[in-house]
Amino acid sequence: MFDVNSVTIKKILLNCVKWQSKAKRSKQSKTELEQSENFRYSVKLIDEKKTNRNHSIVWNYFGYLYRNDVLFDDKHYYCNICVPQVLSAKYIKTAASTSLLHHLGNAHDINISKLENALARINSSSQTTISKKTKLSRQIALWVSRDLRPFNIASTNGFRTFALETGVIKSIEELPSERTVAGTALNDIYTVLENALKEELKEIDLIFTVMTDIWTDNCGNRPYINIAVQYMSNQMNIKTLHLATEFIERPHTGEKIAKKIQKVLEYFGIKQKYYLICDGAKNMHSALKFLTNCLDCISCSAHKINLVLSADIEKSAVYKDAYSVIVKKVKRIHGALVYRFHELKQTFDQEQVKSVFEYIKEWEDLLTEQLQSDESISNDNDEILREIFSENLANIPRYSAFKTENITRWNSKLAMLKSFVANKHAINICLAKLNQTDLMLSSQEIEKINPLVELLDTFETSLRVFQSKYEPTSNLCILFHSIIRKKLSNYIETESLDYQMWQDVLESFNMRFKIYKEFILASILDPGQSHSKVVADYCESNEATALNIIKFFFVLYDLDEQYDTQELNTSSEFSSGSQETVQGSSVANARFTLLMEIEGPERITKPDCIEEEFAKYLSLSSNYPRSADILNFWKINQKVLPNLFKLAKIVLGFCPTSSECERAFSLSGVLLNKKRASMNPTKAKKAIFINANYDLIFPQT
Question: One MF term from GO for this chain (predicted)?
Fold first, then answer.
């Protein structure tokens, strides 16, 4: 039996009273929240200079409560992140800043250390000197983020020895702790880069591109959304900048995605209109109606091609019957040899040595015959023969690593099949040594691989034009579309045994790979394509002229009010076009129609300004070499063609793929590995941000 004394009873009663009061406050906060629907609540941060409080970063998040812009409660501190959704996140004025720090960490995952508060006090005071330890901690944080190293590297014995031996520090006490590096120092570097990025983004003065995608890490199974932008600078240089890689809660609804994008853009002060580039998921496209300045949501071209060559091709009856078994068998062979690649390379090298000796013997016999038939061979001819001999030896295939397929990358299947064909003899020898002859592919099966390799290689060679990060790619979309359709049609006309698979791929490609009006405009404003038959055919198939397309977008983008309504009849120019060839923007068309109804013909002035510029452009581009730099053309002629220059700056800076998001996710995969599966998402966000934007303040030499 327990001895329950009066003190214990008092404690129990006191706790009951506390619980009752807490429940009462919770009920009151719910009532206030219900009543708040009729009022607009906000938090205005307090000025530390007017209070006795020391400067602390927490005061960037807490202040007094205002209702309809009138002071409502100055006896408590309210969290500006919680309000207006939650009014109960309040603390009395006598509360310690530690309580506010705990609230930020527990409720919003904002971890502000005591060292970070101390740094803020130092920066706000008259002191300007920074200690050696602080500088060292920032350099380590920068190094860790740049190379994606673990944050505890400063605490390892090897690093300590290195720092002591090289004179970086004189004693171990001078080294910063892991907490300092991952907390204060990381936040300092992040803040500097954040401000540098904000300055860089001020250059955006016209419509730009926002790229976004969602990725889930393999270790913690946590989803992250990446947001990046691409635009054309005033110096006509394409700039791609990483804004954020943030944790996003499930479920990933369109409204939630839109809020994340809107929040990031507003934080960086971006107010211009933009295009959203994303995959073809419905939730991504549904986010469009929740975004204020978004002109249209355009599907990523790379995602569509990946669907064509992965999911769609596997649905083809020919692929299922003839190729599916072979591909699975090659993957099984890779699994059997995955720990014996050193033996595979050794076997390949031995086979190559044999082939080289055979080749030398063959050449020796040919030279002997020629010397016997013609004894007057000069030294010059002998040198020529030696050059031919060395060139042929250089063409002997080298060993390439045997690769496997990644289900999310269609070109990994091509790499796997190519590496298998290149190493097929060595692979068969290794399988025979392992007594796994049942995995060997017959000569007929190996021959079957060639058409599939040829099909995938057609896409890979044509897609290389999209891999440039610093050159325009939107102007190449219709060229790529035209080339792929032409090549697939040629294969179908041969009526080979596998022509039905080519037909299925062509149908899938036509259905998924859309040609947007923006792509056609970019090709028109490419001086190397302005006179090409391909561009003319795309315009003609949609019953539109290049001039009418230019005028359409000039009005759509609000670049100038000087247009002619007689030339801009969208119902006849675009709506009757082939829907399979051109995917128009429903939002853009509706907006244009409203503009035409509201503005009316009375706003018309100088109706021939665009026509005159377009005539000048055609004249200038006719003499411009097709292989010359496109952006240099517009840089030279921006004063001669001021209106078309604005259009070119928008559409040539347009990115048809979300490749920058894929690059960020590759970095995320390196950072969030098995050893760092429990890394805080906020810390991961800052490390990836620093890595992606490192060159803003530390340009590579």
Answer: protein dimerization activity
